[in-house]
Design brief:
With 450 residues, the chain is an alpha+beta fold. It contains 17 helices and eight strands. The longest helix has 36 residues.
Amino acid sequence: MNSRTARIADALRTQLWPVPAIAVLVALALGTVLPALDAALDTKLPGNISGFLFGGGPDAARAVLQAIAGSLITVTSLTFSLTVVTLQLASSQFSPRVLRTFAADKFVHYTLALFMSAFAFALTVLRTVRSASGPTAGFVPEISVTLAFLLSIASILGLVLFLAHLTREIRAETMMQRVADETRATLERCFPPDRAPWRPAPPAGPGFIRIEAARTGFLTSVDYQELIRLAVAEGAVIRIDKTPGSSVIQGVPFATAWPLDSSLEFDLETAKRLAKGSTKAIHTGSERTHVQDVAFGFRQLVDVAARALSPGVNDPTTAVHVLGHLSGLLCQLPARMPGTQCLMDEQNRVRVVLTLPELADLLDLSMAQPRLYGTSDPEVAERLLELLQELSWSDHAGSYRPVILHQAQNMETAIKSAGHLPQKTAELLESARALVAANTEQLPPSASSL
């Protein structure tokens, strides 16, 4: 899936209207075609089948369809109201940035689609019911009315399941798991297990130019194929200096380009084409998304932990659970070599340099606010130290010892000033110092002096 397709799919996935709208269109088409099929099969169905179909006259059919349509529009309004209330609770209890997660709930989409399609079908079939008047024979679309009845029964069951689903969705554990799953999927896209070995990004050449952003917003995705095509066509190397999720400002540089041949310089027309093409290859929006923004899921989880640790909420247990999910995500990173990625042309020459978050960035994002707001709670402090221990264990090659060492030293400093009881302070400091000692071993002199 390319960047444009992924971006459109994510936009549709996080909207409430696409699935219900499609269901209503299908219901309208079915409500138009099925009565015609009823008319063609009238009196031709075997008795063992017609016995299961609606057997009332035109007045009874109208009453049934009117009751179905009236009740379903009321149920649909109730469902929308409950969904809006859930979104408000999620925004105030967890973080405004988790609303996309709730809005992308497929169960809510399908439930609304069922209610609205059943209402539209019943209303469409209602217009085809005719009473006998003079020479005109009455017509009751038996199959259509029976299907409307079945849809109404399914809607009743759907409402019960929706209420049960809603009570589960507003739980913090469910929300955290969903955010973690979305973040894990983003990690798979951006840092796949078969990712090319890391190589240092080339420095900008002497004839470099800065490319300014045409729009203000969050960098949501980058079209890799388009950037490679542009770089090859113009004989250039293009470096995107902003990570996905960063804020880009109109008129402020977001990328750098320089000639592949360091002895050359870009002429004015080439510089214009590079600026125009690079601007088209990036996509900005009013909010961050999970398409290519690895750090967004970490940000959502950290926000939930920070809200839980606020004096008005004071829920350290939720913060501890968040740190468990963050640890699970971080421990996948050492083997995936996160960070800057270089894209090659057919001659294996670097053409595009993508700035992606390093493990140090994501670890600091995961640790900074929980350490600031939660170190005074012994359980949170212990879970922060456990997170570093788990990450150290997952770093089999020892490539990230300096990063873990830096965070362990920060934890040691924070614990000293946290004001715990002397015994608890001693226990926490012992764990922190053990981490420092374990990650100082086998470090090169330059790293151990950091």
